[in-house]
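Example (one chain per record):
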Amino acid sequence: MYHPFYWPKLLNPLRPGNFSVSRPALFVFILVLSFSVNVRGQDSLKISGSYTATALQTVLNDLEAKTPYRFYFLEDWIASDSITVEFKDITMDEALTKILANTELNFFKTSENSIVLLENTIIYKELPQFFFGREDGGMAVGKNEERSVGLPPPTFYNNDVRRTNKDYGVLKIGKSDPNNLKNTYVLRGKALNARTGEPIQDLALRVKNTSIVTVSDINGNFSMELPAGYNIITARAMGIASTEREVLMYNNGQLNLILEEGLQQLDEVVVEADAAKNVEDTTTGSEEINSEASKNIPLVLGERDILQVAKALPGISSAGEGATGLNVRGGKTDQNLVLLDDAVIYNPQHFFGIFQALNPFTTEGVEIYKGAVPMEFGGRLSSVFDIRTKNGNVEELSGEGSIGPVTGNLALEIPIKKERSSLVVGGRGAYADWILRSLDEESLNNSNASFFDGIIKYHDKIDQDNEVKATAYFSRDAFSITSDSLYNYSNRLFSARWDHQYNQKTNGALMLANSDYRFGIDFDGTANTDFDLAYAINETEVKYKLRTRLNDTNSLDYGVSAKLYSVNPGSIEPIGGDSDIAPVFIDREQALEGALFVGDQIDVNEKLRLDVGVRYAFFAALGAGSQRTYQEGLPRNESTVLDTLDFSAGEVVKTYGGPEFRVAGRYLLAPDFSVKASFNNSYQFLHTLSNNTTVSPIDTWKLSDLNIQPQQGYQASLGFYKNFKDNEYELSLEGYYKRMDNVLDFKTGADLFLNENVETEVLQGDGKAYGVEFLLKKNKGDLNGWLSYTYSRSLYRFDSEFSENRINNGDFFASNFDKPHDVSLITNYKFSRRYSVSANFVYQTGRPVTYPIGTFRFNNADFVAFSDRNAFRIPDFYRLDLGVNIEGNHKKNKLAHSFVTISVYNVLGRNNPYSVFFVTENGEVKALQSSIFAIPIPSITYNFKF
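Predicted structure:
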């Protein structure tokens, strides 16, 4: 046997560069050490040398030729080492220290002219105190004895020490430093899928027979503190074969894991990884949805949709069935930052929010942050939806597709360079036009309702330290239902990202992204009123972020970002020479937004972890353009205008900004039970303008300027997270309180679009939201799913001494999306590996609405008197969906594997109102309601994968 810290093998030197191994024995080891003479520091011979990219063996041969020294080593240890070094008039000890600095080799002098190279380990001249134990069994008390306390004890490595019968091959990590011996060392690395080359997220790594555990992040990176010497690490993750590695820790070091897929162990592996993340992370209000895992949830028309699944999680809802956008913890839809591969996507939904504008077969999943938002993100008050596209298959051509009642879908994964780079190409479209024209309804013959989206992603794992990704995406919607107007809107984005590992402590990412959103209306009527209306917003962002592990307890995150906005607030042009429409062009708006951020993740002890940081946000509204000024303290209207200021191109109109603090903490009450708390504040410099409560894709985005201030938000949250029954169940209970300043709403009867002075039509006031979120989740077994319940309130207040700037007498009132009670139940039951049934039940309090409460006559005309804004509610919403999932057989050698989903949306046929509106017929006011799906909607979708 041999000891990794003392002597790798007992050697009989035969010639330089070779060793013959004798049978090891401890008494021989001690005898050799006793007679070895270490003359380090006594050598007076001075040597010089200069080497550039020279093989280490060549360097050693050169030193032997110049000096009386002879070197002994195994050639395998130095075969791949190349040395660049220069030294002059120094001792052999000093020269070797420089030469071997960037290798895993140490050296030891056994005589005046013999030098032994050692891989990873070192040799001690004497054994530590009490290596063989004390006769009296007492504790060390003397000064010399105190030096031994806390040092790593000698550990002999042989088959008696090994804790496994499997031969994984022992991996040696780091190089021993006699001046810095510790009981524990840090192991860092990256986990990669052996087939695709993409990072493995949520890989659970544990040290056998200890409580040491960690989880890989979204880029596959991990870090864990291991005892010095021998360890066995187990690695498990969803879809990855359970793996073990034997490691010998000599010092801090790096180990990259290339892991094989293993679909047979999914049920057990998923729980291990997710459970650790749920309890141990510091992040509050975080949710994660995997696109593949969402396929068993019955949704409208059989479409797999991670954004619809998100609404079944606590704290996330929408204004109603068919409404665009999501409301997170009482926030408006514009308060969500939705990212697709680091680029903003302004409208991530098709066809009034019924479908997501994301290809489910190219989408990996989404990470949702409702509470403790990471420091790199900013510019929104409520949440971040970080959507990631999957990396392509680097081994062979593969693909996935589906055919449904309304849409068709196809995604291909194409290897570019085997085991290194790939291309993902996805396309998706709807053929609703054909369906509408096939119906026996004359009014629908000229209808149009179609959409498509396409995405391309390139991924190149250049080497262990460099990775490049680039994504291009485009989507377009066009619809016209029994009218003369063709509505259309589109999203376009591009992003590129370079991830670089600088060293074992620091990695960074450089990102460039551009996003563009447009909508328009083409009106072709019978009168001379034809027109073309257009709106557009474009942004370009550059971001650079880094992460440095300072020591075993501190990890520093820091970076910088800059974003340029360009907004076309709207234009209208006549179509044809006979049109009477007057052209209108609103001045373009521009602005610059930037941020600096820095934070530290601190492991105070095994139970307490803190994330603290600050992000400084900056915003500058830029010319060219004109801005009005108004009399201070008076309502903004034509009579209170003081002046009109003109600004040249690039001139700063107004600046805003300030610090955003991000603080989060986690304390482990038990290994499977934690309490978390967080606080953060944020600025939002971008706003939407809309006075619609019905379905509409034509909300416009408005930049902060001289008259419209940025919104500000403050949120505090506290939550408890518990796992039960060997992580089979997850339970969380989290409460939050949010305050918002300068939120926007519209005056009654406001005209917002194509208004050059829109500040006269909007109000800025206060908002508050609070609630409690409950989630119970079952992760494994034939029956799985989750139950979520949210109690929440979302309230606004617009107060002023002037009545025209007040809403509801200046009191708090419910927002359009205030729904106190929200319950979702998602279940899936597997009869076998091929057959399963699923159900989705939703209940929500009806959203607020403004009702007419009377009529009156004035100047011989009838008028309707309305209630306070949002003083009433539409009927409560509930819906039940059912689905049957049938997988094809699991034979390995098949052209394609199939999956069929048969579902019924709204099984109960509930006529859930989306909105209530009022008409006057024969002098009588009548209430009418609009609904999206008032009957059961059956569908069957065929999915295939090859």
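Caption: Helices lie at 26-35, 56-66, 75-78, 92-99, 143-148, 266-280, 306-310, 432-438.
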